[in-house]
Specification:
peroxidase, alpha+beta, globular, Glutaredoxin
Length: about 160
């Protein structure tokens, strides 16, 4: 299992969104990205989590960040989940948990990827990670705090160290 460290380059990826379009990490270069892995569309905690991201989405955008959710659900499931809860951000399909493996996201009860969130800076470095199986919203506030610190510390794109 891969162990992601703060400060390391974010693992590169390309995955399909709910409409079948390819989305890659490189699409977000120069922006802050909040990448959140969640177990299942429509489950109570995952729904609360995604709706909390939806409700705070404008705060992420104003801070110069984008949000992308990832689960092993199908594109059709993501499309229905997005439509039902009016989610304004992209959900990616993680076939065979390949993205979860790249990011070191463990499985919940040995079945579904756990709930983990990564904040990736403008230079595509991991600057924060958090996890919480049963608390689907705490990491959202943490992510906004990290983004605010990034913005206040670096008025221009973060330099590579």
């Amino acid at each position: 299992m891969v162990k992601i460290q703060i400060g390391q380059d974010a693992p590169q990826f390309t995955a399909k969104d709910s409409k079948g379009n390819d989305v890659s990490l490189t699409d977000f270069k120069g922006k802050i990205l909040v990448l959140y892995f969640y177990p299942k569309d429509g489950s109570p905690v995952c729904t609360a989590e995604s709706c909390e991201f939806r409700d705070k989405y404008e705060q992420f955008i104003k801070a110069g960040a984008d949000v992308v959710g990832i689960s092993t659900d199908s594109a059709q499931s993501h499309e229905e989940f997005t439509r039902k809860y009016k989610l304004p951000f992209t959900l990616l399909v993680d076939d065979n948990s390949e993205l979860a493996k790249k990011y070191g996201v463990k499985k919940t009860l040995g079945l579904l990827p756990a709930r983990e969130t990564f904040v990736i800076d403008q230079n595509q470095k991991i600057v924060h990670k958090s996890s919480g199986l049963l608390n689907g919203t705490k990491h959202i506030t943490e992510s906004l705090e990290v983004i605010d610190k990034l913005k206040s510390q670096h008025q221009e794109p973060i330099s590579q160290h």
